[in-house]
Here is the input.
Amino acid sequence: MKFTIALFSPAHSPASRRALRFAEAVLANAHSIERIFFYREGVYNASHATVFPQDELDIAEAWTTFVKQHDLDAVVCISAALRRGLLDCNESQRYSRETITVKAPWQLSGLGQLHEAVQQSDRLVCFGDS
Here is the structure.
């Protein structure tokens, strides 16, 4: 079965941890992930600037490691990211900002990427406030 996963909650929320555990279980059970799409507050999971206390799981880093390890397509909604001050190299240059907070493996793209992934998947599973 092919899944698309959409995450609407920030990195510090339980929904983010649940989404990661679900994604791990999908792959562990020989299914595949078409795309992981981070939207609304979920874009904070892709922030390179997020710092967690030492006694907490760094879920943003855990997502980055998971995406890299499995070579997954991980898309961050560009409008939601820009609205929250999250920029990759291209957007940093476009808006003349010095800060880059979104780096590989994350890619900023539009909501159409979620729609496309849903069309190519058997299931869409959403986590957080939709």
